[in-house]
Design goal:
six-stranded mixed sheet, 2 domains, 50% helix, 8 strands, two-stranded antiparallel sheet, alpha/beta
């Protein structure tokens, strides 16, 4: 009876694959990033950056939007751009808190298995990479796979179109690329892979 009550007290309130304390710490870090992004981009700093005033003028006239609203929208867009990087860090911190995995800090990878059987590079959006970046990423993952013979290496696309976990192969910059242990995987599938829960990210 006592053990049952202790187990109930120790159960996670939010998710099963990391502790509540770790989750709340990750959310707190993200909140700080939001505050920092908002503080860094004010109306005065907006004007100190290079602003396309001709475009703003035409946007205002052709879309029938007043200048103040346009400026606020642009400030929000700049904040959002900054926050996207922080969202990527948030996913890394969450996944790095799963038992058996860790975050790579200035190491060339974002997440790895502590036993070196998995390496991953996380991208928040799949469509933000140009072909040169994709080629460099494939080559980096292939090097990890060649160095760690039991490792599967993943390009993780958090906001992917669809759900998938497949070998990453194809033509990049006119060259054929493939490796038996280099994969591309959607965010939902990667969370499922690390947590053992099919709907971990839903």
């Amino acid at each position: 009876m006592i053990n049952k009550k202790l187990n109930e007290l120790m159960k996670n309130k939010y998710v099963n694959f990391i502790s509540d304390a770790h989750l709340l710490n990750c959310i707190n870090n993200l909140h700080k990033a939001y505050l920092k992004a908002k503080n860094n981009i004010s109306k005065s700093s907006f004007y100190s950056n290079k602003v396309d005033t001709i475009k703003l003028t035409f946007d205002s006239k052709f879309n029938d939007i007043d200048e103040e609203s346009l400026i606020q929208a642009e400030i929000l867009r700049q904040i959002d751009k900054s926050i996207n990087n922080s969202i990527g860090t948030f996913h890394e911190q969450i996944l790095g808190g799963i038992k058996g995995f860790e975050v790579g800090i200035l190491s060339g990878f974002d997440i790895k298995a502590k036993d070196d059987t998995l390496f991953a590079d996380i991208k928040n959006k799949h469509n933000t990479m140009n072909s040169s970046s994709a080629e460099a990423l494939f080559q980096k993952l292939a090097r990890y796979a060649d160095t760690y013979k039991k490792a599967k290496c993943h390009w993780v696309q958090i906001l992917a179109k669809g759900s998938f976990n497949e070998l990453w192969k194809g033509e990049i910059n006119g060259k054929e690329y493939s490796h038996s242990r280099v994969f591309k995987i959607s965010g939902d599938q990667f969370y499922a892979l690390l947590t053992g829960e099919d709907e971990a990210i839903v």
